[in-house]
Fold these 4 entries.
Entry 1:
Amino acid sequence: MASMQERGYHHGNLRTALLEEAERSVVENGAAALSLRELSRGLGVSHTAPRRHFPDRAALLDALAQRGFDTLALRLTEAISAAGPSFENRLRAIAHTYVSYTQGRMPLVELMYASKHGAETLAAPGAARAAYAVPYAVIEEAHRTGELADGLGAQEAARLVFAAVHGLAVLLSTGMIPSAEASKTVDTSIDGLLGGLGSHPVRRG
């Protein structure tokens, strides 16, 4: 007979609980160590209970990657909205939000990008495209309105921005850049990107 906790999870909470525990496990131990049986034990449910939501470990990892991209897209959208109409402010918001999201959860980010290249039947690739589309729309608009130099297309500009921002995130996560210098380093990098993209950063005192 199912435990009271298991019956409670069965009616709507188990999927969320599994994803939350899976994220914690991946961040702490890496995706390779993730075990459905261990997750079940930690949540106090039978080892077969997760299969109601995830038929196997791969399905759970794909859902976890999708959840990561969905969360990133939401945070980027909120940050861009709060930044106002200025392209520079929006670009800085994108960079700071991305770097902030990745810090402390780089194993999850690595899973997200590994899952991005999965089969089209999986959810993560579509979620990845949707997340990427959020900052891309900002850059495309700036290109269309002439805020970016004509010599660089929107796609090329977006790739340049992503390479710089993701690179910073990796350097911060590995300690190559001290965490105390994160905000200053992001702003300095955006200054350089704005110049290279044909825009002009505001000088700060």
Entry 2:
Amino acid sequence: MADLLWDDVKCFFDLDLTGSLPDVRVPNASPEDWQAVLDLVAEKGWKYQYSEGEAVLSMPWAETVLSRPTDAECPELQVWPTADVLAIFRFHADDEVDFDVDLRELQGQDRLDVLCDFLREIGRRLGKPVLMDPEGDYGHPLLGFDVEADRVVLLADPQAR
């Protein structure tokens, strides 16, 4: 059974209300959590591309990426959990795993299931919540992986939207 039903959450996937690139994050993370995410990407066989500026490079160790000088260009890891759904990880801080998803790619139940599966995989691996905030509205999650429930749950009232 699906974690969430499209008809219950489609308002959270409205580009005008949520923005096209909501912020997904794992708070209270560590460099070890970042490494666990990199390992998960490799283990799952998800297609990925790591880049620093225009240079496409091999997958680094999290410690190496996170120890870059503060004025260095922010590295980016693009991950495709399926061929038509992209998550973009940015290594802004070592204490929060953060990435964007594109809501234009996440319309309908099938794509919602892909997102839920992806959030669940990350949350289970880290044993931490994975939260999705509206674009530019940090700290007000709409939905996320709940560790205790072991599934993706609503964290905001869709009727309030």
Entry 3:
Amino acid sequence: MREMLAAFLFTGIMLTGCSKAIDTQMNSVHHKVSAVKSDVEKDYENLIVQANQGDALSQAQLGLIYYYGKGIPQDYSKAFYWLQQAANHGDKEMQGMLALMYEHGRGVDKNDTKAFELYKNLANEGIGLYQSKIGDMYLKGKGTTQSDAKAFEWFNKAANQGDAAAQYSLGVMYAKGKGISQDDTKAFEWTQEAANQGHAIAQRNLGVMYAKGEGVKQNIVSAKEWLRKSCDKGYQDGCEYYQKINE
């Protein structure tokens, strides 16, 4: 049972690119845990015993169960406590969860500086999602001093590992000349990489690039194709531009 529960709970915690990406993957775990809710309820008492005995996996499982409120009432404070115990054993996924909780003030006082510190440690381990997250925090000056150059550096590391959010961000930075010399061709290339992975905003941006001939030869058919894909993903701005281009 514990092995099955662990698989459900940890699926999706190996993350993709920003806190929105983290939350999106958490939601996928949310649905999978629902299928074993009765098992969680039955196993809860055993988890408590094992977690109190210092078992890191049980601590992580218990923290995630409290975080999602599956089988028991949701409790961010208890989630934070148990996830912290697991993180203290060196569990990188749970360290990422703690960073997320510090960033959003879930179960602990909001602390961007602490969140940045935890994310940075994980980024230095070479994990693409956290490299992208650090890039975003440098870009916004969140928990650290704002730096377009450092943002570009970290986005570039994550993008080259295939992180779609970082690829999208690189496209924007090349398009605007932020942290790097302005380059429409590079902007198109990185935006295309992210769009091909299903990043809705990148799909919208790619459609606009095709429509305007920015970094690529103008192609209205391709513009409509990418704008429609963005719209189908539920990105409203993609829908509006698709309607506009069809007028």
Entry 4:
Amino acid sequence: MAKKSKKQQPGGTPATVALTAAGVEFTVHAYEHDPSHPSYGEEAAEAMGVSPERVFKTLVADVDGALTVAVVPVAGSLDLKALAAAVGGKRATMADPAAAERTTGYVRGGISPLGQRKKLRTILDSSASVHPTICVSAGRRGLEVELSPRDLAELTEATSAPVART
């Protein structure tokens, strides 16, 4: 893992605290969240001026009764059948939002794959590997972290699989 290039402010989110503790290189991007925007991920990409293919959303699904995290580009959507297959399951559905919030410790639109209250099995869409860096939620709406997909996969113990539809 690369060394971090900037010091984390005290009182960061669990995601930024986890990144700092791991000593990985990351950049924090803050923007003013617009509650009327129809898509958290697209809003983040627009606000940061980053291609939607490089901004990834964190979705929580229920695969055969087990909550599972899927990290997919905001330019696409989650393929639930592919997610189930990636974890050896039969059926996947989107998790109840309240269960996702309670389990991860984050609010919808701010769920990060990093620093979750309960570590969930994580699948990172294989498209992440074509980018030197990607952006994911830093744990609250209006805050993203940019890091290498390799560091993200290592820190979340993610499996890479094609689980996004474009």
